[in-house]
Amino acid sequence: MWQFTSSIPVVHKHHENAHGPPASTHGGGGAGEEAGKGSETAANEEDTGSILNCAIAGGLGGGIGDTAMHSLDTVKTRQQGAPSNGKYRSMLSAYRTIFVEEGVRRGLYGGYCAAMLGSLPSAALFFSTYEYSKKKMIDDWQINETATHLTAGFLGDLVSSVVYVPSEVLKTRLQLQGRFNNPYFDSGYNYRNLRDTVKTVIKTEGVGALLFGYKATLARDLPFSALQFAFYEKFRQWAFRIEGKDTGLDDLSLVSEIYTGACAGGLAGVLTTPLDVIKTRVQTQQPSNDFSKSRTHAVKLSGSLFGSLKTVYNSEGFLGFFSGVGPRFVWTSVQSSIMLLLYQMSLRALNNSSSKLLR
């Protein structure tokens, strides 16, 4: 039976006397025990299969969502990495400028391969962890739903961060750089491709450089994921009520699926923008104070999150916390909408296929 509290189908155990008379005690005990073990094994196999389905559906939804919105993420990275550069100040003009000067592949879609290197496996890890945690907390431990959604989103991002943080470092540098030997913008970096980026970073800065901004990334993404999925689950509950549908039996309309995902992602994205600013600048700033004169650099930040927030405030004021908020809002809302819609659709199809195979 499907329940709204978890995307994993839950096998409910029935009481022994719920249907028919009690089993005979003459020679039937062994068969009853074997039947019980068989049911428990089938339930465990179904749960394992459901977790795997969550991972596959999550990887698919996350990869496609990130692909669709990568160009806007590049615009956001330029705005946050070079906040005083006039040609990147407006979202639309920045998009047009990057497209005209640098093209699509190495301009708007710079760092795409690095993004996919982390997006697919991290999304799979996130959703499998999220759904398992949600099922465990609600069904087994009877924990409040809102607290569960916040905690499950937090845990899902924590587990997946091991994969996506290194790819995030590579992605943001390539996005900030743009094309190789870029004559239009000097980021301070000049990598030929993803392989050269990995090789150069490790050679010149050490393996630890792949974890630059790990704390800042977690400080952004843990609350983002917790808020996003708490909002998403709550918005879906409201949507079911508005449509007058049964949360355990019916499906939401396509429009509601799109809007719930978009609102959850957009709202969480705006609220965590200050943390995103810190994360982007920590991962893209030069390891030394020898900044290039041709790039309008952001102020160099310290390793402390609160110290970095203070530095941004002192140099740019309150508005500095929301540098790139426009593209971040669009990116998080549309990406969240695509990802969660595809996740629900893929998971439904995979679970239906699994159910047919188990019959």
From TrEMBL:
* Any one of the GO CC terms: mitochondrial inner membrane
GO BP annotation list: transmembrane transport
Pinpoint the residue ranges of every Solcar repeat in the record: 49-136, 144-238, 252-349
PANTHER family to which the protein is assigned, alphabetical: S-ADENOSYLMETHIONINE MITOCHONDRIAL CARRIER PROTEIN
Bilayer topology: Multi-pass membrane protein
Q: One Pfam family, please name it.
A: Mito_carr
Any stretches that span the bilayer, and where are they? none
Report the source organism.
Torulaspora globosa
What segment(s) does the record annotate as region Disordered?
14-44
Q: Which UniProt keywords apply?
A: Membrane, Mitochondrion, Mitochondrion inner membrane, Repeat, Transmembrane, Transmembrane helix, Transport
Q: Subcellular location, in the record's words?
A: Mitochondrion inner membrane
Family designation = Belongs to the mitochondrial carrier (TC 2.A.29) family.
Entry annotated with the keyword Membrane: yes
Top-level division of the source organism's lineage: Eukaryota
Indicate what this protein is called per its UniProt record: Mitochondrial carrier protein
